[in-house]
Amino acid sequence: MPHLLNETAAGVYIIAVTPFTDNGAIDEASIDRAVEFYLEKGVTGITILGMMGESHKLTQEESRLVMSRYLTRVAGRVPVVVGVSAPGTDPLVQFAREAMDQGAAGLMLAPVNTVRTDEQIFAYYSSVLDRLPDAPMVVQDYPFITNVNMSVDVLRRIFDRYPQVVMLKHEDCPGHTKLSRLRAAPGRQVSILVGNGGLYLPQELARGANGAMTGFAYPEMLVEVCDLFAQGRAEEGEDVFDVYLPLLRHEAQPVIGIALRKEVLRRRGAIASAHVRSPGPKLTADDHHELDWMIARLQRRLRGATPRLAAVGT
After folding, report:
1. Among 63, 179, 193, 302, which is least packed by CB within 10 angstroms?
2. Of 252, 244, 240, 247, which is closest to residue 292 (Cα–Cα)?
3. What is residue 309's predicted lDDT score, i.e. its pLDDT?
4. 261 burial class (0-12, 13-18, 19+ CB within 10 angstroms)?
């Protein structure tokens, strides 16, 4: 089994999709396929039941099924972080304990959308963290979705008060200055992985992020960029990133992004169906033709790139 998540976590913790059949049922066989796909591409860890994993569209029983299937298939080969965000604290804590009992390396928690002030945010996290003292926790800062703006001060207060908080998933936007302030602030430092589809990954790595926690359908690019930055080869990391940027930007579109991501993963053999549960977008014929062109363009650029770049896209 992998060690529990801690403050040294770095690399790429891919946000895994929740695969469905064309009829909308959980596709357990595709969970197995997705796990092997992600591991083959070199990810450091896997995050399940995140917002882009359509966790809000699952019943409690389905969430448990997805969690168990992912954890069973991964079988300790990499750490698995389980998203446990929920409106009610009691079911949240119960599900969180089940996740840890089944082998999760850590949990991810976003604030409920009813908190606004620093005191309310701190009180909310305290209400959960006081009940899960031994569970490594990832604080998710994603105001675009949660409508909760977490200040550097309240984040530092949470980090210093609760040692089980070992990671921040940073998705504020624009957030580069916030990253720099977090790294410069006194107190306990935690791992910082960034999201936002990976759109700003090179700049965020340069500002002190330890890696990425996002779900781009070409995870090998995220892995390569993070590895190159960790080796001090930032310029080469930027070059890799630039090749994929048009498709990355396209996939990062609000609302339709999850449908684009699932379709690319389907085309790459990671899942059997690109079905997105309702309410959710459906790709049109024009969307498919546009994606055809962008993937073909990426493949041409990879073939014409240096041997190292070409190897990333294989």
Report:
1. 302
2. 247
3. 58
4. buried
**What pLDDT band is residue 65 in, cutting at 50, 70 and 90?**
very high
pTM of the model: 0.94
Residues 283 and 2: their CA atoms lie apart, in Å, by: 38
Buried b (16+ CB within 10 A) or exposed e, 38-71: bbebbbbbbbbbbbbbbbeebeeebbbebbbbbb
List the chain domain ranges.
11-312
Q: Is 254 exposed, middle or buried (0-12, 13-18, 19+ CB in 10 A)?
A: exposed
Compute CA 79 distance to the chain's CA centroid, rounded to the nearest angstrom: 13
Please name the amino acid found at residue 216: F
Query: Which pair of tokens denotes residue 310?
Result: 């070409």
Please answer whether residues 77 and 44 qualify as being in contact, where contact means their C-beta atoms are separated by less than 8 angstroms.
no
Buried b (16+ CB within 10 A) or exposed e, 279-293: eebebeeebeeebee
Q: What CATH superfamily is the domain 11-312?
A: Aldolase class I (3.20.20.70)
Q: Which residues contact 110 (CB under 8 A, 6 or more apart)?
A: 51, 85, 140, 141, 142, 145, 146, 148
Q: Which residue has the tokens 């390396």?
A: 105
Query: Apex CA 247: angle with CA 168 and CA 82, to 5°?
Result: 30
Adjacent-strand bridge partners of 167:
138, 191
